[in-house]
Amino acid sequence: MNDAVITFGPALIAVLVLLTAAGAAIVRWGELGQGRAVLIAAVRAVAQLALVSLVITAILRSNPLTGLFVLLMFGIAAATSARRAGGWANLPWTALAIAAGVAPVLALVLGAGVVPLRPIAVVPIAVIGGAMTATSQAARRALDELKARHGEYEAALALGFMPRPAALEICRPSAGHALIPALDQTRTVGLVTLPGAYVGVLLGGAGPLQAGTTQVLVLIGLLAAEAVSILVTVQCVAAGKLTDRTYDFRRTRYAGSRTPGPRRSPARLSLRRRAPS
Length: 277
What we know:
This protein is mainly alpha-helical. It contains eleven helices and no strands.
């Protein structure tokens, strides 16, 4: 028996129930959101991981099944980001943003032969989860910023900006903050956290050097994928493609002269907030 493996039993179930209940109670008591969301997320995690655990061995023995599994992961990720951004109408654009981040990373690591083209290696390196999180956060931050600073957007239009550059001036710096979690994780790896890929490779019998190499590849791949996904998301928001069904910043226009002034460079308008470093 491996002493490093968590064993299933009554104590584990009790701890999971207690942690879930505590999280839901704190969210509700602190008025941070709906406590029910914590309960639903926990139940879904248990059910989904139980299901995946039953079928993952069969999936990873077949290349076609692995491909279908990755496509399923991608579809669920795109749908989750679309719902988080504001509605199902956003699904094509969240799918585009996630694919734009994931596809180049997979193509590079597989094409260069760094990762073997085997199912058990492709699934962990797919970085779909990171691209999904970055897309959701970037879309939500960009849309909220445009809503909160709509007066500045109108001011940019009054100064002669076209709608898309005006929207970019407002939402791009805030949406860029969606990269902060990935940056912090990469900066502090080994000092604050030992991520799953590192621990998993160690438990699989590989040495620390191989585990560290795998984790660095995953982290830097995540950074690249999330950066591309955030960029595409911001562009889709500014173009009015990715929207919130409760608010559309394009519907309000500057109510001044019908003849707009000369177009000016975005650098002439001081609307930018500092992006993450």
